[in-house]
């Protein structure tokens, strides 16, 4: 397994200045490398305390690249609907060179109505814009004299400069939430997959992962080239009860920020986002202790979190786990405690040299067993 940190901000000017936030986040990125974490990841969001301090993950990761030498840098994720693909591909290729080839690119459709309204982009176009944007970026990175004819963008022949440091291109990951077809599409295309397990029951998450591995195998892609990224809200303390108590407070704070960000779903409908009109109720009904008990968050003493990670590996195989270590405006010192305890007392037992896929990806029956899995839980919380 691989482990990294996800710097998803849930804070705003009333809590902490942007200068202070970025100073702390960059210190955490440097610490992550010192502690042996695999990656640092951040998101693209606008306007709200929920993610709004990160409108451009490329800018932040460029600053992190200048302060580190080994750790992977991951966009988790950029939203191609909001940027012309020539511009986006160029920004990311530049970051790949600045980091000496340490970039993995995560793409997402986005899901906040106020963001789409500000960019004057209909939400019903999000899926097509996502697919077109990712394809265009991949071609611009890999090919020369690119001629592109899409529904939303037409250009070429052009040859992107700079070329990515990684050839033919950086690793591409795509974010999915509750739509199995998105997982299958990622597998068929030979891309990696990013999921947030808190928004589905474990059986449903396992089903989506199984679909990804099956589609990847059917398309003839090497299983060892696949990758599953899972993001978990995380809080560790030497005392498990203290971890629960403080983690519960940070979770409640994060939920309060998310309620504001998703409030437009109360009067928004889109065929590309079936079921999202219920998201406000789901956030308001979130049950922190239930999420921890169901393996949807990494919270507790190091011993308790080791058991939680063992369960994740049993469910999903040797995946890549991102610890969300600043959710809920967690103080810098608390983020450091979580990272140090995890790196020193949890992580060493799970890093292995050989790749192993989940059992169902190699002929097991988990996919069939999961076919009757429940719909996403009512206490679901999107955190990435």
From TrEMBL:
GO molecular function, one term: oxidoreductase activity, acting on paired donors, with incorporation or reduction of molecular oxygen
GO CC terms in record: cytosol
Domain Luciferase-like: 1-318
Keyword Oxidoreductase in annotation: yes
Sorted UniProt keywords: Monooxygenase, Oxidoreductase
Entries under Pfam families matching the protein: Bac_luciferase (PF00296)
Biased composition (Low complexity): 356-384
Protein name per Swiss-Prot or TrEMBL: Monooxygenase
SUPFAM superfamilies given in the database record: Bacterial luciferase-like (SSF51679)
Region (Disordered): 354-384
